[in-house]
Amino acid sequence: MYKENKIVRIALSGGIVGALCTSPRRAIDAAVRRHNAEGWNCRQVLPHSTSNLGVVILQLICLVCTLGLWTFGAGYLLLFERPLPAPGQPVHPAQLVR
User: Fold this and answer.
1) Each residue of 20-72: pLDDT tens digit?
2) Which residues, 6+ apart, have CB-to-CB distance to 35 below 8 Å?
3) What DSSP character marks residue 43?
């Protein structure tokens, strides 16, 4: 059986707004539910952090300019997969959802 893969990035907010209003569990749950409805299965959830010095400096500048209220933060990477029929096999209607 052939499989199709997709990677989805969940971005979270940082700063005071992110600490008070962002729920990582709720964001992941919503993304998984949405993709499950399209026929995708979540295979793996990985934390996504930035190790690029330029992005870290930009995050700090954004945090300073907003007086600590908001900055774009790290998030999660979700790996999804779904089965595909082999060439020449009939396609089930549920697999046509995109």
Assistant:
1) 888 999 999 999 999 999 999 999 999 987 778 998 899 899 999 999 898 88
2) 6, 8, 42, 78, 80
3) E
DSSP state of 69: S
Is the Cβ–Cβ distance between 61 and 72 less than 8 Å? no
State the amino acid at position 88 in one-letter form.
G
Are residues 68 and 16 in contact, defined by beta-carbon separation less than 8 angstroms?
yes
Contact 71, 12 (CB under 8 A): no
Q: What is the enclosing helix (H) or strand (E) of 73?
A: strand 71-84
Comparing C-alpha atoms, which of 22, 2, 4, 5 is closest to residue 13?
22
